[in-house]
């Protein structure tokens, strides 16, 4: 049974994840190699807890668990039943973490990666007892989005998958077990198909970035939150999909490298909200207001989708 969890890496994903797991009466230790990231995460915890309150996620009868921050890796993983690795999407960085914890943890401690899409089979080549490694892919913001993908690599034991699926379920979240260890799993394969086309349309001057967002959010996003893609095919009619896809599929972007617009912006350190500029520009005040507004709307939509309003 999982009771103690260590989160390694406290950037965009770590703090919300820590808050959500603690709300499930789990004891969380949170570690980052960068002291500044630990301080930022500590500050973000209270905000995430406020959002969880607004979502109406009541603590279990036993109460809310703890989140303890540490700058000592050994202390972070000591006695953990589960480690969630949350460091940058780079197999070298992730493998370094697995090597660093390998001698510090028991052979049956489960090691989960929040990788966005590196196959688990590749990751588990860098840890002893690969049967206890599993993909546990959260979606951003992790304290608000309830779905978590669970992915087995070639060497993952079925019991490891079952333990993580049951843990997710036990704290009121929605596990989806992905049946094959394909790059990007399912959520990001679908998202990146959409993003490839969206970036291509903006890059080719078909539409302005703001209008692209209006078109997708109101035309597709709002609807797809209620009617998933498979159900949407039935709502539209498979005959319509057959006719449109017979001429449209061949015209969609099939770019197999990173779009020049993205390379140009990342090369100029325009990374989005985290650097103040990306596709759009953000002052610190705008960022704060935007994040609060998005959290408020996501909470309201989720309550309605769950039939609680
Ligand atoms: N940003 C997103 O929307 C999502 C990201 N992910 C995945 O989650 C993982 C983390 O992503 P983010 O939080 O966005 O990254 P991030 O870049 O915001 O944060 C990564 C953190 O890891 C820390 N770190 C780097 N090396 C470390 C080490 N050796 N030991 C401990 N900490 C270390 C960094 O100091 C940083 O605070 C990635 O694999 C990413 O693909 C998954 C779902 C959504
Ligand atoms: C652009 C992008 N890439 C990866 C992920 C998750 O792995 C997300 C997300 O969760 O929102 C994303 O937006």
Automatic annotation (TrEMBL):
Keywords noted in UniProt: NAD, Oxidoreductase
Segments forming domain 3-hydroxyacyl-CoA dehydrogenase NAD binding: 5-181
Organism: Mesorhizobium hungaricum
Sequence ranges assigned to domain 3-hydroxyacyl-CoA dehydrogenase C-terminal in this UniProt record: 184-282
NCBIfam families according to UniProt: FHMPC_DH
Name assigned to this protein: 3-hydroxybutyryl-CoA dehydrogenase
Family of the protein in this entry: Belongs to the 3-hydroxyacyl-CoA dehydrogenase family.
GO BP term, example: fatty acid metabolic process
Protein residues bound to NAD(+): 9-14, 32, 89, 94, 116, 140, 274
GO molecular function: NAD+ binding; oxidoreductase activity, acting on the CH-OH group of donors, NAD or NADP as acceptor
Record SUPFAM superfamilies: 6-phosphogluconate dehydrogenase C-terminal domain-like (SSF48179), NAD(P)-binding Rossmann-fold domains (SSF51735)
Superkingdom of source: Bacteria
Signal peptide feature range: none
Site (Important for catalytic activity): 137
């Amino acid at each position: 049974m999982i009771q103690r969890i260590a989160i390694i890496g406290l950037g965009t994903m770590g703090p919300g994840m820590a808050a959500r797991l603690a709300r499930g009466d789990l004891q969380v230790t949170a570690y980052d190699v960068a002291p500044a990231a630990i301080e930022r995460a500590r500050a973000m915890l209270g905000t995430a807890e406020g959002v969880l309150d607004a979502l109406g996620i009541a603590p279990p009868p036993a109460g809310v668990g703890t989140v303890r921050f540490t700058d000592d890796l050994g202390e972070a993983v000591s006695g953990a039943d589960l480690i969630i690795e949350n460091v940058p999407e780079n197999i070298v960085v992730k493998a370094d973490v697995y090597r660093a914890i390998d001698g510090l943890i028991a052979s049956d401690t489960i090691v989960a990666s929040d990788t966005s899409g590196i196959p688990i089979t590749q990751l588990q080549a860098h840890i002893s007892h690969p049967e206890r490694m599993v993909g546990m892919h959260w979606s951003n913001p992790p304290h608000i989005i309830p779905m978590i993908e669970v992915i087995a690599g070639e060497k993952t034991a079925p019991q490891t998958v079952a333990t993580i699926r049951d843990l997710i379920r036990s704290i009121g979240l929605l596990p989806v077990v992905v049946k094959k260890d394909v790059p990007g799993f399912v959520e990001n394969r679908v998202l990146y198909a959409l993003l490839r086309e969206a970036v291509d349309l903006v890059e080719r001057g078909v539409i302005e970035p703001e209008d692209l967002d209006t078109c997708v959010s109101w035309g597709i996003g709002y609807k797809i939150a209620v009617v998933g893609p498979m159900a949407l095919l039935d709502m539209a009619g498979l005959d319509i999909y057959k006719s449109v896809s017979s001429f449209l599929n061949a015209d969609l972007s099939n770019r197999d490298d990173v779009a020049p617009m993205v390379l140009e912006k990342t090369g100029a350190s325009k990374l989005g909200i985290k650097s103040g500029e990306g596709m759009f520009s953000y002052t610190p005040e705008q960022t704060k207001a935007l994040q609060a507004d998005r959290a408020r709307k996501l909470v309201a939509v989720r309550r309605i989708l769950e039939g609680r309003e």
